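>> received
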Amino acid sequence: MRRGTFLNSGLPGGEGPPKPFVVKFTKAGTFTFHCVVHPGMSGVVRVRPKHKRIPSVKKDLKAAALQLKAGILKARALAKVHPPANTVQAGNDVGSVAWLRFFPNSLTIKSGTTVEFRIASKREVHTVTFGPPAYTEAIEKTFTAPLKSSNPGPPTIGVNPLGGYPSDPPPLPPFNGSNHGNGFEGSGVLSLGGPLPSSVKIKFTKPGTYSFECVIHPNMDGKVIVTP
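>> returned
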């Protein structure tokens, strides 16, 4: 790779872990790389001339271990989230460390209560999507997908509108477990800053246990338990 050139791994696709992205560096210099999906996620490769010494594998592993230890300490601090009553927070992060979970991930309320679902993440976006597991999982699996095109070159990536947009014009209607015939109701993408909303409010009008998830991040799930 040479300075000033563009090189991109693309998004991983298919089942299982992605194949390694291998880059050969042919010229000395400092090269910065980024994840264009996650703001603030970046790294640096410093290429030295052949006659210069570089850190050993042992030193690299030690540096990685220290970085991991610092990240774990940050993650433990970030897990101590205490939202106000009747509030669910989606995600929490600082710098390069982020929790992909809801706080709390199980909320018990009385029928007729309004719950605010809000985002506090500065580098992630999330959704709050209610519905049958098979239905919401299908949205999750197709949240981003390449669009069919006859044009050469990389495909354009599209977002599934069932996950990307609110299920109803705002404000969202009360939830009774049978919205849209199957219990589907979604916030669309929530974001801190920019044109997208950072929170939504939903009133729960019927007792029951209602599961929700972020259809952007697998296994980021929660539930609201509504009592009489």
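>> The domain at 82-227 is CATH 2.60.40.420 (Immunoglobulin-like).
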